[in-house]
Amino acid sequence: MNVSRPNWPNGLGLLGIHLGALLALWPGFFSWSGLAVAGILAYATGALGVTLNYHRTLTHRSLRMIRPIEYATAILGMLALQGDPISWVATHRIHHAHSDRQGDPHTVRRGLSWAHLGWLFRANKYAPASAERERYCPDLHADPFYRALPYANVPLQIALAVALFAIGGWSWLVWGIFARLVFTFHTTWLVNSAAHHTGYRTYRTTDRSTNSWWVALVSFGEGWHNNHHAFPFSARHGIAWWELDLTWWNIRMLAALRLVDRVRVPSQAMLNRLRLPAPARSA
Predict the structure, then answer these.
(1) Are the C-beta atoms of 175 and 38 separated by less than 8 Å?
(2) Residue 283, SS3?
(3) Which residues neighbour 117 within 8 Å (Cβ) at sequence distance 6 or greater?
């Protein structure tokens, strides 16, 4: 793994983005159109890019997209500025391999602040270096498209910023880039922190994953995290009928349009085998 040293570029970049987001509190930078642009981009980059593509499609192969849709949503994931697909997927696969144990890059056992944010810029010997990324992502590393994407990370964000400023001025830039990135960052990080700390457990797992309705609400269904750790291959995270999973709705729509196939979900026998007794579910 990496030599344990602080990641200063990550830390300074995150600080700058958060400082930029504070401009959204200034009335002069507010507009309803800017807020709408931020919402649309948060859904496109967070729900479609990170959640649907990076997580459920590329990391766990819970479904198969037709190649143009896969590549397009991967680019949307890049615009969430959480890293290129290979680095993101490798980190998440390592997390599942060592969840809440030694080797987990963002284990909650080191505290909520570490699991939420600290692991990204503090000394972290379990953050995957290039050799580990290739080892954990041979499928993506074999594709020239995914090998090329790391070089487009910052240029894509700059191109989006220039386009937003050209169309909508400072309001669109502040809300569409800085405010939107901060929202998408924290909704993703809450899955690592809050959804390993508070909530209920429906299924037996070896980690601290929980189901959190409010994390699911802001993260497009990712907060049903105990369900996910029990059945990592499942394209559906909100398994109970009342567990709202917006990304699962997206998958069903895409499947109806024949843009995705090989959608995997657990069988009833699998659910029954790992289901916890009723008293333990409200832990």
Answers:
(1) yes
(2) coil
(3) 14, 189
